[in-house]
Amino acid sequence: xxxxxxxxxxxxxxxxxxxxxxxxxxxxxxxxxxxxxxxxxxxxxxxxxxxxxxxxxxxxxxxxxxxxxxxxxxxxxxxxxxxxxxxxxxxxxxxxxxxxxxxxxxxxxxxxxxxxxxxxxxxxxxxxxxxxxxxxxxxxxxxxxxxxxxxxxxxxxxxxxxxxxxxxxxxxxxxxxxxxxxxxxxxxxxxxxxxxxxxxxxxxxxxxxxxxxxxxxxxxxxxxxxxxxxxxxxxxxxxxxxxxxxxxxxx
Length: 251
Ligand code: ADP
Description:
Elements: E1 2-11, E2 14-24, E3 29-33, H1 40-47, E4 55-60, E5 63-64, E6 67-70, E7 73-76, H2 79-87, E8 89-92, H3 104-114, H4 120-133, H5 149-161, E9 167-171, H6 179-195, E10 199-203, H7 207-213, E11 216-221, E12 224-229, H8 231-236, H9 241-250
Parallel strand pairs: 3-10, 3-11, 8-9, 9-10
Antiparallel strand pairs: 1-2, 1-4, 4-5, 6-7, 11-12
Helix pairs in contact: 3-4, 3-5, 4-5, 5-6
The chain binds adenosine-5'-diphosphate.
Family: Belongs to the ABC transporter superfamily.
Subcellular location: Cell membrane
GO molecular function: ATP binding
């Protein structure tokens, strides 16, 4: 589903990803952990084509992100190609990022109608299913400012799913929330993990959540994967001293 092949990303002299290689199979739930600044968010942003890479190739569903096929040749990706790749990926950010001038229903149906070309009635029917799933059926007409942070984040999750993505990227989705609002958001994500086969890439400091939903944990340091494995192994018996130190600090 996703392959990073010798990916280099730098901001000025700061090499953030240093010939990074990893693969994520369809249906995998992978949690990225590691110290702040180790490149986790950059990986998600590269997948969303919010950043350009400086070397290597990012593959999504067998196609390179930065290039497209023209006959037997690879040429730099057109905006149309990028839009198509982005459609298969949903992302939920730390700060909700709902459209502030639209109500909840409009937030959920805007892209399905205008990007996927769905009929309004179909988009609304799907939105209602998703709002039921995230426990917000009574908030269709509410505007984002009338919702708590936790409710806004559940709308953002529903909005990402409304595009029927193959891949869901979750970037610290609970870290801006008051503690009492975190559990509801994590419950929704647990449910998605249990009831769908969406491939998930998760950046989180919620280690119990990571343990519950992911089948693999990748520990990053300075733009490289220094250790990876099933959560039970990484969390209870890490090999690397740097992983142990990091976990001691966050657990
Ligand atoms: P993490 O998510 O692991 O905390 P990030 O991917 O956010 O790490 O950041 C990795 C490094 O890239 C940091 O050193 C950060 O300062 C730098 N960085 C991220 N985005 C930018 C940017 N837009 N401009 C300059 N430096 C950036």
